[in-house]
Design goal:
single chain; about 675 residues; mainly beta; Immunoglobulin-like; 2 domains; 42 strands
Length: about 675
């Protein structure tokens, strides 16, 4: 599908304590620099020379093989990679000094074109080092460039925002990204540029001895492109007003991940987990938000082994309650994104250790509500751990003992709690969607979706409508089955108990894990059940309050699509998602188009290596039908296959929840998925 498509424990979810441990960066100070930048980078205190002082810049120039040249056309390159993140220390390695090269100092415009004459020149030494004196009156800024030109006019450049300026594929890559994103180069600050370059360098990448610069740039795009794009989006925006978002929140999430063993042992892992967290949000001023994470309840399971020997598979299921408190900071942008960063992180846990590259989590606000949607993409490398001080406790990661890759995708929903909620606040018709995953020790895996309507009477009662159910199951022998049925029911007068802060405590006398938002028009549930050694089931369910008789308009509106799909084909497992910067735009009440990029995490079998494929941007035609009660169907044409959405638009038309199927017409679906549409702005 063009648009959608381990053997160690993993509990690395976007909002839990395991990743909060890595959120140590002071984003508030960095964000303040971004918000206050005023041109020429002078807000960082790095002004140019005056009549009495001469300012010099210096650094080292490096490239694959020490040569600045494209040996092949980048468009013809195959991205051949036996790794997700290479098994070396956290840095770009394998580069060699560029010796005897002319370094030119120039200004460029926002398109990367040279402005005026060369301002100064120097030559690199035998070790690739250079020193260059700035002309009087030359300020350090994002549009001041040092450049080395190689064969075929190939350029290797770096932005002069500091007096220590190395020149490498990383600096060229970051500059190209700023240009591609339309950034105002002379308004970029030292903090933003240096920080981003450092983050890219923290990704594990090795320059192959036989590689050229084009190989290196392609590898950088493959491994870090989405992260760099997201960082530049934040750098280029101004801060929003967080005052109206202050309060206590809950979040719930569902994560699916695939792990491998780098072909060492012939086993792999298919894992899932779900969680509900509590946190508070405070306004830090100038777009900064202060988040206090106050605990989490979660469960997770991993199916480990091989499809060739399912009798030897194992299923671990765990439930965890964490009451620790953690404080982090984020940046709220003017266009409704709440961004929270994680640093490069190493985690030690018993015999294993992990490396997680830096990640920017972007929570999309739903219009004027205190409601956010997050889709996270995470990848890490698992290593053996070692005892460095011989005290009998393993305390460090061994970079020479790589154990495998771990890649996960998740969707998480954040909603502010109500205050003094009563039964009368929960009233009216809601559309409900459900997405669940089950793992069994015999190697069987299932994905199930449901849609139905609920009617709350405002007096603690619920009518539960018939649910349309779809299930896709996979066996270790490669047999895949699809089933399309309806649930039992309908049921009337089901008692619902909701607390004053919106916790859905029980339904029909059974304890539940769900919550209502503070405008009483959205709910979320996360559930799990299982038995260690046997089975683990995990699900997420969402509901939106529906319109009464009048279909919400979609004409002239555009939406960001949060999508996660799970496909089975024989023994193969594909986990798909859309990248963050996608857009679904409607030109009428029935016709639209999706412009997006996608990512697919794949394993040919349970024990196979994890492969990740990220697509270039594509466009699919969309047709949509929204009824007066909010029931909605939408199809995206991916000839010869179709991605179909079934679900509901809310009364305002700014939020939609869906389950999805993907496959060829007349055939059983090969993929079931979950999708949430959030309006981002209006098309004029």
């Amino acid at each position: 599908m063009v648009c959608c498509h381990g053997d160690a424990d993993i509990r690395h979810t976007p909002w839990g304590d395991h990743i909060l441990d890595g959120w140590r960066r002071d984003i508030s100070s960095a964000s303040q620099d971004q918000l206050e930048c005023g041109g020429s980078g002078s807000s960082d205190g790095n002004s140019g020379s005056d009549a009495d002082d001469q300012v010099t810049i210096s650094g080292t120039a490096e490239a694959p093989g020490g040569v600045v040249a494209y040996f092949r056309e980048p468009g013809l390159l195959e991205i051949v990679s036996g790794y997700l993140i290479s098994p070396v220390a956290a840095a770009i390695t394998g580069l060699e000094p560029i010796t005897g090269a002319t370094v030119e100092l120039i200004r460029i415009d926002n398109d990367g074109n040279q402005i005026g004459e060369v301002l100064a020149t120097t030559v690199t030494s035998i070790t690739g080092d250079y020193v260059l004196t700035l002309p009087e009156g030359t300020d350090l800024s994002g549009d001041l460039i040092v450049r080395i030109t190689g064969a075929g006019d190939t350029e290797l450049r770096a932005q002069v925002v500091d007096q220590e300026v190395d020149i490498s594929p990383v600096t060229e890559f970051v500059l190209q990204k700023f240009i591609a994103q339309g950034s105002d180069l002379d308004h970029l600050t030292t903090t933003s540029v240096v920080k981003l370059r450092g983050q890219v360098e923290e990704f594990d990448l090795t320059a192959d001895p036989g590689a050229d610069l084009s190989d290196m740039l392609v590898a950088l795009e493959q491994e870090t492109g989405e992260f760099v794009d997201s960082q530049i989006d934040i750098i280029d925006t101004t801060g929003g007003d967080a005052a109206g978002l202050v309060g206590d929140y809950r979040s719930s999430g569902l994560n699916i991940s695939l792990h491998d063993d780098d072909g060492q042992y012939g086993i792999g892992t298919f894992a899932a987990d779900t969680w509900i967290s509590a946190f508070s949000l405070e306004d830090g001023g100038a777009g900064v938000v202060e988040l206090t994470w106050e605990g989490e309840e979660g469960a997770w399971a991993n199916l480990s082994g091989s499809d060739l020997a399912p009798q030897n598979n194992s299923l671990n299921y765990y439930v965890d309650i964490d009451d620790d408190t953690e404080e982090v900071e984020g940046l709220l942008t003017a266009d409704g994104l709440l961004a929270v960063e994680s640093e490069f992180e190493e985690e030690i846990d018993g015999d294993f250790a992990w490396r997680w590259p830096p990640t920017l989590f972007r929570l999309q606000r739903v219009q004027d509500r205190a409601l956010f949607i997050l889709q996270a993409e995470e990848a890490g490398v698992r290593y053996q751990s070692v005892d460095t001080d011989n005290n009998g406790e393993k305390d460090a990661l061994d970079p020479d003992e790589r154990e495998g890759d771990e890649v996960g995708r998740s969707i998480e929903v954040f909603a502010r709690k109500p205050v003094n909620m009563t039964e009368a606040d929960l009233v009216g018709s809601f559309g409900r969607i459900y997405f669940g995953v089950t793992l069994n020790s015999n190697g069987q895996a299932e994905v199930e979706t449901e849609t139905n309507k609920l009617e709350f009477d405002g007096a603690g009662g619920l009518d539960y409508g018939l649910a349309s159910k779809r299930m896709l199951s996979r066996q270790s022998n490669g047999a895949v089955e699809y089933d399309d049925t309806q649930s039992e029911g309908p049921y009337s007068g089901i008692p619902v108990v909701v607390s004053s802060t919106g916790d859905v405590e029980s339904i029909a006398g059974e304890q539940t894990d769900g919550y209502i938002n503070d405008t009483y028009d959205f709910f979320a549930f996360a559930s799990s059940e299982g038995e260690d050694g046997s089975q683990g089931s995990f699900s997420a369910a969402y509901g939106v309050k529906l319109p009464v008789d009048n279909a919400p308009s979609v004409n002239g509106r555009q939406y960001r699509v949060f999508f996660m799909g799970l496909a089975f084909s024989g023994t193969a497992i594909d986990l798909s998602n859309l990248r963050f910067n996608n857009m679904l735009t409607f030109s009428s009440e029935t016709v639209g188009a999706l412009t997006a990029r996608s990512s697919t995490v794949s394993k040919a079998s349970l024990s196979s290596s994890v492969e990740v494929e990220n697509t270039d941007e594509f466009s699919l035609d969309a047709s949509i039908s929204v009824s007066g009660d909010g029931s909605t169907t939408m199809t995206l044409d991916d000839d010869p296959s179709t991605l179909m959405f079934n679900g509901y638009m809310n009364a305002d038309g700014d939020l939609g929840i869906f389950v999805t199927t993907y496959g060829e017409e007349g055939q059983d679906p090969e993929e079931l998925g979950l999708a949430i549409l959030v309006e981002v702005d209006s098309v004029q």
